[in-house]
Amino acid sequence: MGFARKTLFFAAAVAACGAGFLVLDVVMMNMQGLDLIFEK
Amino acid sequence: MRKTLSFGFLASLVALVVCVLAGTGPALAQEAAGFGPAPVLTAADYPTVAGVNGRLVIWIVAQLHLWFAAFVLAVPIFVFIIEAIGMRTRDKRYDDMAYEFIKVSITAYSITAILGGLLLFSLILFYPHLFGYLSTIFSKSMFYYALLFFGESAVLYLYYYGWHWLQGDLRKWIHLSLGLLLNAIGTTLMLLANAWLTFMMSPAGVDPAGVFNGNEWEAIHNFLWNPINIHRFVANIAYGGSIVGAYAAFKFLTARTSQEKAHYDWMGYNANFIAICALLPLPFAGYYLAAEIYAYSQQMGITLMGGIFAWLFIIQAVLIGALFLSANYYLWCGMGRSDGARRYYWAIKYIAIVLIGAFLVWFTPHTLVLTNSELKSLGGPHHSILGPLGIMPAKNTAVNLMIIFTFLSFLIYRRSNKVATVSWEGMGNTLQVALFTAGILNILFLGIYHGYFTNTVYKVAASIPQVLTTFVVIVVSLVLDSFIYRGARDVGPLHWGRIPDRAQYALFLLAVAFTWLMGLMGYIRSGIRQHWHVVDIMRDNSPNAFTPTLGYAANVVSVAAVIFLTLVIFVFWIAKVSSVKTLPAGYWKE
Amino acid sequence: MRLPRLLQAALVLVGVYLGFIVVFDYMLEAVIPGSLLTMYMFFVTVGVFMVFTYDEERTRELVAPIKAMVENPIYRGARNTVFIVIPLLVGYGVYSRTLPSFEAPVELRTIHPAPPSTAKIYGERVNLLTLENPFRHYQTDDPEIFAEYVQEGAAVYIENCQYCHGDKLDGKGPYAEGLNPTPLNFQDIGTIAQLQESYLYWRIATGGPGLPKEAAPWISSMPVWQEFLTEEEIWKVILFLYDYTGHAPRSWGEAHDAGGH
C-alpha cells in the first residue's frame, strides 16, 4: 500500500471506531436519562 | 499439627464467645422480644484495660486481621484459576505452582484466625456496648459466621492435604470442585463481615433512635454493602497476586540454580499477571464505592474527598500510581526473556511518557499546599491551571489512560516473542492503532466536555461510557490480536529467569504499596464515620472519638504494615523450612 | 554522535524541570507550587529511571560513567571532588531547610468543610441531606418568576456579598486582599459547581462560626448571615450564584431516588 492509501485507510478506521464509540456514549448517557450533549 | 490445633481452638473460642454473649450480654437478654434504642454512652462506658489505648489496639488488630483475611481469601481464588488452567493445558507446572501457593496460605490462614479471635476479644473488652448493640442486630449472621468457619477449615484441609491424593481424571474434578466450594465459603464469610462494617457506615433496618425492626437481611443489605463487596472482592485478588508475586521474587532472589530461578521467574510473572488483571478494574470499583458514599451522604462524601481525608487521598493516588508504574516496569523488564523484544523497545518511552503524564494529573491535589509568597503571587488559594486538574473528571480521564497504556505494555509483551504470519498483518496493526486512537479521543472528549462544561449529573454519568470505552479497547484489541497472531511463529524459546533483579524489587514494591494502600484506605473508610460508632445512630463518646492527625494515622498504618510484612516473611520462611531435612549422623540408634 | 545515556537522563530531568517553570511561571503566569513541583519531579525521575533501566544493556550504559568514576584510578580527582561536593550539597540543603525563617508555616487547608447532616438554622433543626431550594422548581415551572427571583438574589448579593466575593463572583471583591484565606471564587469549577444547594444554604446561614468543630480550628471570617438576611433571601442569593456563574448545583439525578437515607 502506498503512503496515501495507508493514511486514508487509517483515517477511515479511526472514523469508524470513533463512530462506534460515539454510539456507545449516546446509549450509555441515554440509559442514565441524559443526552450526550448537555443543554442548559 | 499446630495449625489444626490453633484452628480448632479458635473455632471453639468463637463459638464460646457467641454463647457467652447470647447468655449474659445485657442487651441481648433483655431485648429478646422487642429491640431497644442504640445505647447512649458516656466516657465511663469505655473500659481501660491494662492501660492501653483501646482504639489503637482495635485499629491495628483489625487491620492485621483484614490483611491476612484478604490474603487467605484471595489465594484460593487464583489457586482455583491456576489449577483449572493446569487441568486444561495439562501442564503440570501450573498444578505445582497452585499447590505451592496453597501451602503458603495455610500458615497465613491460622494467623488470620488468631487475629480474628484477638479482634473479637478486643472489641468485647474495649467497646462492649458497641459490640453488644451490633450483636443484637446481627445475632444470626454472627452465629452462622462462626459456624461457617468449621466448613471453611474442613474444606481447606481437604483441599490442601488431599492435593496429591485427588489426582487423575475424575478425582481432579472433585478436587477442583472442592476449590470452588472453598471459595464460595470464603466469599460468604467476607460478605457477612462486610455487612457488619457497612451497617456502621450506612445503617439500615433501624429507626433514627437505633431501634432494630427485626429484619436482619435489611440490616445486612444496607446501602453500602454491595459497593464494598465488589471493591473488596476485586482488590483481594489483586492483593493476593501481589503477595504471591513478592513470594516468587523472594524465592527468585534466593534461588541457587538457574532451574529454580526459571521456575520462580515464571511464578512471579503469573502472579503479577493476575494482580494486574485485577488491578485494571479496581479504580472503577473504588470510584463506584466513593460515588455511592457521596450519594448516601453528602457529609460523608465531602469528608472523604474534599475534607480532611482528602490529603490521604493524595497519598492513595501516589501509591496507586506506584502500583501501575511498578507493574509496567516489571512487564518491560520481563520482555528481556524473549529474543524478539528489541523490535518493540522504541514504544516503551512513549508509554512511559503517557503513564507519567497521566499519573501527575492523577495525584494533583484539589487544594494545593502553598507558601505565602506563592499564595500572594497567585492572588488566592485557587490555581487557574492546576485547580481543574484536582477534580474527579480529570482523575477519571487520567486513570483510564493509565489503564489503556498499561494494557498496551502487556500487549507488546505478548507480541515480543511472536512473528505474525498472516498476510494482512499491516492492516490489522493499523486497525489496532486506529482503535486505540479513537478510544483515547473518546475518553478525552468525555472527560473534558462533560467534566468541565456540564453539571455534576453529567460529570458522574460520563464516567460510565469512559470506563466502557477502555473496556472495549481492551477486549476488541485482544480479539484482533488473537486473529493477527493466529498461527504465528515464535522468535525462539522464552528464557525464563533472564530478568534483572531490579524487576523483583518492583514485585516487592507492588506488595508493599498494596499493603500500605489498603491500610490507609481502610482507615479512611472507617474514619469518615468521625465521632460515630454507627453513623447518626450511636455516638462514640469515648475519649478517643476524635479524628487523629494525618501524621499519626499514617504512622499507625505504617507500623501495622511493618508488623504485617514481618509476619508474611515469617510465613514465607516457614514454608521454606517445611521442605528442609536435616540428617544428623549417629543421632538415632540404628 | 550519540550522547552518553547518563547525560541523556540528566538532560531530560533538567529539561522537564525547566519546562514546568517556564510554562507555569512565565507563559501561563500562574506559579507552580514548590510542594507540587517536588512531587512531580520525583515521579518524573522515577519514570526516567524506569525507561533507562528496563534492560541490562541500557542499565550498564547508564551506570558505566558512574562505575568508571568510582573504580577507575584515572578518575581519582573527579571521584574525590564528587565525594566532597555531594555531601556538602546535601548538607547545605538540610541546613537551608531547617534554618528558622519568618515565613508562616505551610497550612493544609480544606476548601470544603464537610457539612453536618443536620444544622440549626433560624431556630429550627433542618436535615441538610434532604433540604432543597424552595425556588429551584420555578426554573422549569415558571421561568419568568424564576428570573425575577434571580434578580432579587442579585440585589441581595450586591448589597451584602460582593465586598468580599467580588462583583464578578470571582472572589476578588474590594476587601478580598485583606483576607487570608481569600474569599471563595464561585466561578471556579471546583467550588459551588461541586456542591448541593443545601450545602450553600448551611454555609451562608451559619457562616464561619457554624463550621463543624470536628476539623477546627477554622479561619473563616464569613458572617453568620441568618442574623442579617431572611431565609428567602438566602435561597434567592443561591439562585443568583448559580445563574450568574452558569454552574448547576450538584444533584443526584435518578441515582438519588434509588438510594436515600
Could you describe the 3D structure shown?
Chain A has one domain (1-40). Chain A has one helix and no strands. Chain A has one helix spanning 3-31. Chain B has 590 residues and is an all-alpha fold. Chain B is built from 20 helices and four strands. In chain B, a hairpin with a 3-residue loop joins strand 3 (532-534) and strand 4. Chain C is mainly α and 261 residues long. Chain C contains ten helices and two strands. Chains B and C meet through helix 11, helix 12, helix 13, helix 14 and helix 15 of B and helix 2 and helix 10 of C.
Task: Walk me through the topology.
The complex is a heterotrimer of chains A (40), B (590) and C (261).
Chain A: H1 3-31
Chain B: H1 2-24, H2 26-30, H3 54-89, H4 92-126, H5 128-137, H6 139-161, H7 169-201, H8 216-220, H9 225-254, H10 258-279, H11 282-296, H12 298-305, H13 310-334, H14 345-363, H15 372-378, H16 392-415, E1 418-419, H17 425-452, H18 456-484, E2 489-490, H19 501-527, E3 532-534, E4 538-539, H20 550-577
Helix pairs in contact in B: 1-4, 1-6, 3-4, 3-7, 3-9, 3-20, 4-5, 4-20, 6-7, 7-9, 9-10, 9-11, 9-19, 10-13, 11-12, 13-14, 13-16, 13-19, 14-16, 16-17, 16-18, 17-18, 19-20
Chain C: H1 5-27, H2 34-53, H3 56-71, H4 76-98, E1 118-121, E2 124-127, H5 138-141, H6 143-160, H7 162-165, H8 197-206, H9 231-245, H10 253-258
Antiparallel strand pairs in C: 1-2
Helix pairs in contact in C: 1-2, 6-9, 8-9
Compact summary:
The complex is a heterotrimer of chains A (40), B (590) and C (261). With 590 residues, chain B is an all-alpha fold.
The total domain count of chain C is 2
The computed structural class of chain C is: mainly alpha
Question: How many angstroms does the end-to-end distance of chain C come to?
Answer: 69 Å
State the order of secondary-structure elements of chain A, H for helix, E for strand.
Answer: H
CATH topology of the largest domain in chain C: Cytochrome Bc1 Complex, Chain D, domain 2
CATH-derived architecture of the largest domain in chain C? Orthogonal Bundle
Question: Which labels suit this protein?
Answer:
heterotrimer, B: 590 residues, two-stranded antiparallel sheet, 73% helix, globular, disordered N terminus, C: 261 residues, mainly alpha
